[in-house]
Amino acid sequence: MKPTIYNVAQKAGVSIATVSKVLNHTGRISDETRRRVTAIMDEMGYQPSVVASALTGKNTFTIGMLIPDIANPFFAEIARSAEDRAHELGYNLVICSTDNKWEKEAEYIALLQQKSVDGIVLATGAWNDKRLKDMLEARMPIALIARDMPTLAVDTVLVDDFMGGYQAASHLLASGHRRIAVIAEDLKVMSSSERVRGYRLAIEEYELIYDEQLIRISDFTIDGGKREAGALLDQPHPPTAIFACNDLLAIGAVQAARERGVIIPDQLSVIGFDNTILATIVDPPLTTIAQPIREMGSKVIELLVHQISGEKLNKQRVILLPELVVRRTTGPYVDNDSER
After folding, report:
1. Is the Cβ–Cβ distance between 155 and 144 less than 8 Å?
2. DSSP assignment of 2-15, as one string?
3. Which residues sit opposite 183 in a β-bridge?
4. Between the chain's N and C termini, which has fewer beta carbons within 10 Å?
């Protein structure tokens, strides 16, 4: 038979109420008692009933997290850092990969609510204001990560995407490049549009014309980046540099260049965004704009847990700074027109 809370209390020599306080992180209990009870629960393999906790209005110590694609290293690393911090704070994390589809998001939200999760982290781009407003009105603790909805009062953790786009373009401009293309995701997603807006400011500061023909929209994949970069490189006057709005798109651009015999960085510079593990293992290693991924994942969980515990009412919008990481896919502009 599965051990019960009574079995744990009996073996630990404490009351059932004390075990309950340890489980719910409430009440005044000595560190020694808390450690002893926790050790005995682990030893006996005791698992509190999540269903029973939900029915009695107590926390289930479970958090849901919606991400666009677990196969994308950026979101996989975000989820890992969030899971690590959640575990440290005594919570389990349920990760749902939505493919940025509203239907899947709705299904997962309904499922998470049925499971009585204590709160939800949203990292998906297909989210709409009305659905979020409905959840906020239902007093579901919610926090956003890597996505922004400034019109709503909700805890948010993100990087300064505008600054990241500006840094990427400025790096290429300072290297002498003037015909710089962009491969972006859906510009309806604020993170993507802000990166392009930062790029545009840097271009205009150099008194160059912002050319929409150099802006290509792609799905969130290596193949998408490869396809759009190929279209750019096949133009009569191809760009000498490409700013890809995530590392997957940048790797696709590198592949497209290699297939056409374009040498990186001598004939084409490529810069990505995110600084995932892929940036270090691709050949050549990718110059990119780093997001503080571990800090972002950890911080969003902390904000959500504060909501769940009722410790704060004011919502926070935490904007972290990106950082340029120069590797070997960018270099000084060289006039190779005659060679092409």
Report:
1. yes
2. ---HHHHHHHHTS-
3. 216, 244
4. N
